[in-house]
Design goal:
Elements (H helix, E strand, L loop, with lengths): L1 E3 L5 E4 L7 E3 L6 E8 L10 E5 L8 E3 L3 E3 L4 E6 L3 E4 L7 E4 L5 E8 L9 E8 L5 E3 L3 E3 L4 E6 L3 E4 L7 E4 L5 E8 L10 E8 L5 E3 L3 E3 L4 E6 L3 E4 L7 E4 L5 E8 L10 E8 L5 E3 L3 E3 L4 E6 L3 E4 L7 E4 L5 E8 L9 E8 L5 E4 L3 E3 L4 E6 L3 E4 L7 E3 L5 E8 L10 E8 L5 E4 L3 E3 L3 E2 L1 E4 L3 E5 L8 E2 L4 E8 L10 E8 L5 E3 L3 E3 L4 E6 L3 E4 L7 E4 L5 E8 L5 E11 L5 E4 L3 E3 L4 E6 L3 E4 L7 E3 L5 E8 L10 E8 L5 E4 L3 E3 L6 E4 L3 E4 L15 E8 L5 E11 L5 E4 L3 E3 L6 E4 L3 E4 L15 E8 L5 E13 L5 E4 L3 E2 L5 E6 L3 E5 L7 E2 L5 E8 ...
Parallel strand pairs: 7-12, 14-19, 21-26, 28-33, 35-40, 42-48, 50-55, 57-62, 64-68, 70-74, 76-81, 83-88, 96-101
Antiparallel strand pairs: 1-3, 2-4, 4-5, 6-8, 8-10, 9-11, 11-12, 13-15, 15-17, 16-18, 18-19, 20-22, 22-24, 23-25, 25-26, 27-29, 29-31, 30-32, 32-33, 34-36, 36-38, 37-39, 39-40, 41-44, 43-46, 45-47, 47-48, 49-51, 51-53, 52-54, 54-55, 56-58, 58-60, 59-61, 61-62, 63-65, 66-67, 67-68, 69-71, 72-73, ...
Length: 1114
């Protein structure tokens, strides 16, 4: 404090100070004294005094929690003073704070005397809320397991109350799963995490197609109900074609378009009916005109190739013929065609003949019959027969074929008998050489025949020794019976032969050898066996040889002499370059042979310098007397190599190309060897090199010329506010490089004013640069700050917003008077601030309006009977208080009387709400009872059983307002929930849920359920079929078609209709008295009145098929 003296000229304080004013800071109560001296030097008679009282400073402290979760509000309380001042504004002892990060709060206090305390500080730790998420599939097929995994927190609470970090579920339908999490600091997530899971239905697969066929037939099975299929056969088509050989069960699974596979397989058992094995009994051979019986067996009905429908037929074919039959069994399966070939043997036609129509007396004749297998002559059972008749006579014969067929005709033959002559024989010379003449003489008959054959008294050349027998014939042709012979001895001639070559080339010496005689004479005058010859021209040599028996013979041999050829050779070129061709030519012979790999000559490509020798051969194979030789010199080609200084250049760059390996070079496009040039486009350059021998070779060189980019630019803006984007676009290249690291055509946010340079490149590496390109000016944004005392409030609370940093402001939504806001729901308040440059910035603050807890009370027994245990369950809050005492989410009690329960609930934000629940208690009767009766099915597979509810159920609660629902499981017959009787039931288990709902008033109901299971038995034998035999077909809804009672019990049936001739006119599979019937309205017009026959194939191996007749009246 300051103490000031007055009334004198100079002063003396008790503090020893001589100033008129002094500053003191006493620590306790004290009295300060003052003496003064006037200008005249006079000292005051008495000292002035001032008592100073020193009050103690207040000691301020802060109470309250020092940690909270984001979004929570805590209350800090200052103590130790009379009034307080907090660093964030409030002037009260308590303040509510909701920091969004770790913060320190400071308070000073004053006493009533105005003394201010030292600051007190409390550090508040703000724990962030966990960000909870659910990991798991969002789709699955019905029945699949789903694993949900919680993330982002320390502990979790699932929708079902589970606290596990993961769940294994199998949701039956589309489900929204919810999850809350709590961090290790005890903070719970602000918003519940959700995962919507779609559950796709699995396909229900069915199979359409017949379930029975005959062996060898083909049917189609079609799967329905899915998008793709897998059959037990391995096929993946929706339809399969099958031809089973035995009864087979086919199954198929399906997958729909959502990828879900059917839970179970669709199954169809296909019965394969065997084909009847039909045979034909009856002979397969007959004689012409006979009748034969053919009998078919192995089936129930038959159709012959001649149109007959009986099992036996009688036939008499006139020629070989084949009869076929097809059999049908009771299943309607047709056998393969069975055939019986009938061979029709013709009757024999007998021809009788005699070995001679006449004989001489004493002679014999052979009678022979043909045209049959066995014969009977009028004089003998044998054939042929030899007889010696003494007189002229006629003979008859009949015959039988190998099959026993008897001829229809009798053949006859006549034989005449004549007298024989007596003869004598003679010869002119009985011993002669081969080839000499001799003659035979005969007497005693009219004509003669010699054996060997000769003419009488006519000389002939003797060729071999022989005995000649003379036969003399009378005028009737009878020959002598006495033996008349002469002998002729013929001496053989020597077999003279000349051996040796018959042809050879000029100048060749050869030997000719004689053979086959005793002595020889050559035309050359020689009498030797062998002679040497060297003819110069073609010549003939003659040889005469004489045997020891003095008989001689001759031989001739011609010798052909071939001249020798003289050849010459030529070549088209004697000096060539490698790869050139030459022509070798020869003359003077017929064929030629070259040495040196030239073969037979002609065109060839020599690979090295060579000589070729020629030998010629005449057409007779004689070789030339001389050898002709030609030569060729082969010069190698130059090996041309190329090089280039730069094989790939940008437009305008130079390069040079060069070639090596020859003496001179010629490049395409006028390029000079090794001289730099500027190519204007990509090209292939060809060079031809020539060596000293004039031989040339070729090489190529590729040059690629890439264009350079022609750049242009565009900018979205040339001045922006800080944080706004600019897009710079370069055009005319493949890639672009901007200074400052920006990307072409990609918006960027410049931080300062800058100029940018562009370089553009093609993919080839050819580039171009434009500099500078563009300058972009950047203006800074205003820095806007927002603060508030309470970022989180409960409904009906308010808070104030504070803001700075711009020239003008616009709030969305608008603020209230005095910048106070009172949102009804959580709201984000955003301010848009604009500075003098027109740059705008924004800042937001979220004011969270925490909801009141949504309290709900549910009862496990809303209409309990006295004495029953009841649990009330509270939901919707964090903490609960029942009737201002019990703190728990559940309230368990024993029902005694009607009671109202009051519940108080507070959520995690401290917001409080209340609700109440009235529990209704009733006196109840005993448990539900009901009496049911049933009747089983009358016969197997018949759906005629029934169930009857016999007694009325009374509710347990005494009220007349109740309703009974009947829910039947195992059948879809009743959907009204009011059926007490079920009829037309098949074998199986049926469950009845009788649900009794009792209503006490508009708010209280009680439901009791009684469950009964009834079994319908199917133990009787199969139902009998009952066909009706009369059809009027006048379509008056009575007897309009063939009706068969109980046919529905045999779903695999088929019905066949036959006319009175046994011909099948219709087969109806799956006969059902409705759609599959006979006759249909379309068929009746083509049918005649009369009797028809039927076969009903049950398709059940335990039940016989049924046959009968039908009378159709029109």
């Amino acid at each position: 404090i300051n103490l000031t003296a007055s009334g004198a000229n100079t002063y003396t304080w008790s503090t020893s100070s001589n100033l008129s004013s002094i500053s003191v800071a006493p620590l306790s109560n004290i009295t300060y004294t003052l003496n003064g001296t006037s200008t005249a030097g006079c000292i005051s008679a008495a000292a002035a005094s001032l008592a100073v009282t020193v009050n103690t400073l207040p000691v301020v402290s802060i109470s309250g929690t020092n940690a909270l979760c984001t979004g929570q509000t805590i209350t800090l309380t200052a103590i130790g003073a009379t009034s307080y001042s907090w660093n964030h504004g409030p002037l009260t002892a308590t303040c509510a704070v909701n920091p969004i990060s770790n913060s320190s709060f400071v308070v000073t206090g004053k006493t009533s005397l105005g003394c201010t305390s030292a600051p007190a500080t409390i550090a508040i730790s703000v724990f962030s809320l966990p960000i909870v998420s659910i990991n798991g599939a969002s789709t699955l097929c019905a029945g699949d397991n789903l694993t949900l995994t919680a993330n982002g927190a320390n502990t979790y609470t699932w929708f079902n109350g589970s606290n596990s970090s993961s769940l294994l579920l199998s949701p039956p339908s589309n489900t929204l799963f919810t999850l809350n999490g709590t961090s290790s600091n005890g903070c719970q997530n602000l918003n519940t995490s959700t995962l919507s899971v779609s559950v796709f239905n699995r396909p229900n697969i069915t199979i359409t197609g017949t379930n029975a066929l005959c062996s060898g037939q083909t049917i189609n099975l079609t799967a329905n109900g899915a998008n793709s299929y897998t059959w037990s056969t391995g096929s993946n088509f929706n339809s399969i074609t099958i031809s089973p050989t035995i009864n087979t069960t086919y199954s198929v699974s399906g997958t729909n378009t959502l990828g879900c596979t059917s839970n179970s397989l669709a199954v169809l058992a296909v019965n394969v009916y065997s084909l009847p094995i039909v045979s034909i009994a009856g002979t397969n051979t007959i004689c012409f005109g006979q009748l034969v019986q053919l009998t078919a067996a192995g089936a129930n009905s038959y159709t012959w190739s001649n149109g007959a429908n009986t099992n036996s037929i009688y036939v008499s074919p006139i020629a070989n013929f084949t009869y076929g039959v097809i059999g049908s069994n009771l299943n309607g399966c047709l056998s393969p065609t069975v055939v019986q070939s009938i061979s029709v043997y013709s009757l024999p036609i007998i021809i009788a003949s005699a070995s001679s129509p006449s004989i001489c007396s004493g002679g014999s004749v052979t009678l022979n019959a043909t045209g049959a297998s066995s014969y009977t002559w009028n004089i003998s059972p044998f054939n042929p027969i030899t007889i010696s008749p003494v007189n002229t006579a006629t003979y008859t014969v009949a015959g039988t074929s190998p099959l026993g067929c008897l001829s229809q005709n009798t053949a006859a033959v006549s034989v005449s008998v004549f007298v024989t002559p007596s003869v004598t024989a003679g010869i002119s010379n009985s011993l002669v050489c081969f080839g000499r003449l001799v003659s035979l003489q005969a007497n005693g008959a009219a004509s003669y025949t010699w054996n060997p054959s000769q003419l009488t008294n006519v000389p002939f050349t003797a060729t071999s020794s022989a005995q000649y027998t003379l036969t003399g014939s009378s005028i009737a042709g009878c020959t002598n019976t006495n033996l008349a012979t002469v002998n002729l001895s013929v001496m053989s001639l020597p077999n003279v032969q000349i051996f040796g070559d018959s042809a050879f080339c000029f100048g060749t010496t050869s030997t000719l050898s004689a053979n086959g005689a005793n002595t020889y004479t050559w035309n050359t005058g020689s009498n030797l066996n062998s002679i040497s010859i060297t003819p110069s021209i073609t010549s003939t040599y003659t040889l005469i040889g004489t045997a020891l028996n003095t008989c001689s013979n001759s031989a001739i041999k011609q010798i052909t002499v071939f001249p020798l050829p003289t050849v010459s050779a030529s070549i088209s070129k004697s000096v060539i370059c490698f790869g050139d061709t030459v022509m070798l030519s020869g003359s003077g012979a017929n064929t030629y042979s070259w040495t040196g790999g030239a073969g037979s000559g002609g065109t060839l490509i020599p690979t090295a310098t060579s000589s070729y020798s020629l030998t010629g051969y005449s057409i007779s194979g004689c070789s030339s007397t001389n050898v002709a030789v030609v030569s060729v010199t082969v010069n190698t080609l130059p090996i041309i190599t190329t090089g280039i200084s730069n094989p790939s250049v940008c437009l305008g760059q130079t390069t040079s190309i060069y070639a090596n390996g020859a003496n001179s070079y010629t490049w395409s496009n006028g390029v000079l060897n090794g001289v730099a040039f500027i190519p204007t486009a990509s090209a292939v350059f060809t060079v031809i090199g020539t060596d000293a021998n004039g031989c040339t070779n070729l090489a190529i060189q590729n040059i690629t010329v890439h264009p350079v980019p022609n750049l242009s630019i565009a900018a979205s803006s040339y001045s922006v506010c800080e944080g706004k984007q600019v897009t710079l676009i370069g055009q005319g290249a493949n890639t672009f490089t901007w200074s400052s690291g920006i990307s072409n055509g990609v918006a960027f946010t410049p931080s300062v004013t800058n100029s940018y340079t562009l370089n553009g490149s093609f993919n080839t590496g050819c580039s171009n640069t434009i500099s500078p390109v563009v300058t972009v000016s950047v203006f800074g944004l205003p820095d806007i700050t927002i603060s508030t005392e309470k970022p989180g409030i409960c409904p009906a609370d308010s808070t104030e917003l504070f803001y700075t940093g711009a020239e003008t402001y616009t709030w969305i939504p608008p603020l209230g008077p005095g910048n106070f806001i009172k949102p009804k729901i959580s709201t984000s308040y955003t301010v848009f601030g604009t500075d003098l440059w027109g740059c705008q910035n924004t800042s937001s603050v979220l004011i969270t309006v925490h909801p009141l807890p949504t309290l709900q009370i549910s009862s496990t027994n809303s209409m309990a009977c006295i004495g029953e245990q009841v649990t009330l369950k509270a939901t919707g809050a964090q903490t609960y208080t029942w009737n201002a005492s019990l703190v728990n989410s559940e309230y368990l009690f024993i029902a005694t009387t009607n009671t109202q329960f009051t519940l108080y609930g507070s959520n995690v934000f401290g917001c409080l709400d209340t609700t109440s629940y009235n529990q209704n208690i009733q006196s109840c009767s005993v448990a539900l009872l009901a009496d049911l009766s049933k009747s089983d099915v009358s016969c197997e597979s018949r759906n005629d059983a029934s169930i009857q509810v016999n007694s009325t159920i009374q509710p347990r609660i005494p009220t007349t307002q109740y309703r009974i629902k009947y829910k039947w499981l195992g059948t879809d017959q009743c959907t009204s929930e009011e059926c007490t009787t079920l009829n037309a039931l098949a074998k199986g288990n049926y469950t009845l849920l009788m649900i009794v709902t009792s209503t006490v008033n508009a708010h209280y109901q009680r439901t009791d359920t009684l469950v009964k299971t009834i079994t319908i038995n199917d133990q009787n034998p199969p139902c009998n079929l009952q066909p009706y035999h009369g059809i009027t077909a006048d379509f008056n809804a009575t007897n309009d078609y063939f009706h068969i009672d109980n046919i529905d019990v045999y779903p695999n049936n088929s019905v066949e209709i036959y006319n009175r001739w046994g011909e099948r006119i219709k087969r109806i599979p799956y006969y059902n008295n409705t759609t599959n019937i006979w006759p249909t309205p379309d068929e009746i017009g083509d049918l005649q009145s009369g009797t028809y026959f039927y076969i009903i194939f049950t398709g059940d191996p335990r039940v016989n098929n049924l046959r009968g007749w039908i009378e159709l009246l029109k």
